[in-house]
Amino acid sequence: MSIIPFHDRDGHIWYDGQLVPWRDAKVHVLTHGLHYGSCVFEGERIYNGSIFKSREHSVRLKKSAELLGFDIPYSVDEIEEAKVATCKAANMVNGYIRPVAWRGSEMMGVSAQHNKIHLAIACWEWPSYFTPEARMKGIHLQLSKWRRPAPDTAPTEAKAAGLYMICTMSKHAAEKDGFQDALMLDYRGYVAEATGANFFMIKDGVIHTPTPDCFLNGITRQTVIDLAKRRGYQVIERHIQLEEVQGASEIFLTGTAAEVTPVGRIGDWTFTPGEVCRNLMLDYDALVNGRLEAAAAE
User: Does residue 296 have a pLDDT over 50?
Assistant: First the structure.
């Protein structure tokens, strides 16, 4: 399998207020964000020329930076304009968008109040993880040994780069053992999320999802909850014990990259994706491609 490295591609990246050649979008090796994790980011998709939930992502990017103690020197409106310009320069109508902000290299040490705050935005082609048919087979999750931290030990409401290290470690371990992702518990032992997607399970026709009190309340998560309620499904947000999961009839994940992805296995437990998963997959696909709203208006 040939992989084009991300540092060596054609095109342009929006970097601190202007579009620069892709290969020239560089940071110094002594950048604070690299050494101390003072970096926040977003993951977004553009469908048919429209960035899905774009403003919500821009608002969250600004909030994440504030939680890490720095201010991105661009307004939400300016970030919105920059994302559009980035996609236009790439002729991107369907793909993935990555805004990222970080502290620069003026000071090297834990303290870095005077470091410049940078913002970059890149976009690239990234199709859905699986076709609806393939997704209905359900992905396999391993239980991670790492837990999501308590909100008084880390800025858990921020989409901060440093919080994803245990996600990378968990996913690598899962893939090594033949799984596709990992399920993470929180610091109390409750079910939390996968490494980059929120968790849902169906029991007796009711949708249950963990309360996002120590991990991100994903934008896709919120969207799917709304879609489920439109269909008349009951959605309960609560703390979920791991042993409860075994009795679920269906399980699925939600996220910008995952969209709506059913789960067929967690450890030794197996599940059969069914009607609820399929309905929400189809509804989400219709929504992001502009068909659901159009149908509702007819």
Answer: no
pTM over 0.90: yes
Please state the separation of Cα 32 from the chain's center in Å.
23
Active-site residue set: 159
For each of the domains in the chain, give its residue range(s) and CATH number, in order of start: 12-124 (3.30.470.10), 132-294 (3.20.10.10)
| Residue range 27-49, pLDDT digits in tens | 999 999 999 999 999 999 999 99
- Report whether pLDDT(130) > 90: no
Q: What is the mean pLDDT of the chain?
A: 94
Q: Is the dihedral of CA 4, 10, 14, 16 positive or negative?
A: positive
Distance separating alpha carbons of residues 49 and 94, to the nearest angstrom: 6
* φ, ψ at 93 (rounded to 5°): -115, -20
Based on its alpha-carbon atoms, the radius of gyration of the chain, rounded to whole angstroms, reads 20
